Input
Amino acid sequence: MPIVKRSKKWSWRSSPNTPSFMRASRRRAYVASALLASWTGTYLDLYLAGKGLYAFPKRPFPSVFSIDIFFTAVVLPLGAVFFLALMERLSRLGRIGLIAALAALAAALEATAETYGLFTHTAEWSHWYSVAGYGLFLSIIWEFYRRFQTVD
Output
């Protein structure tokens, strides 16, 4: 007999009593969201790099890709899954704070990548664009994930 009653809102781990179709639905939502993050990141990078706003001087397969394909094919999907796992456990205010913090962190990491020669941008580029862009990107990924679970 448990001494402390478990809150119904607490969802740290999927309970063994959770039906398998619910776990499968969550897995499908994670995979679909990771693919959306990868494709969106790839196409945005292709568009913005094609416009000449920024470039990736050091990237894998430079003769084939004009963007950093490792970032868009590996880092973004894995980051999206980790982001979604954190978002599920937070309150609404916590989610807003996490999106704002991650957007600011992404802009700071871009500035760091510039010092290592991994990323260059034009004089017109502002890192505030990155803050707003990543904030919007993360919000879209979260909303897609939520809606995908209700549809599935």
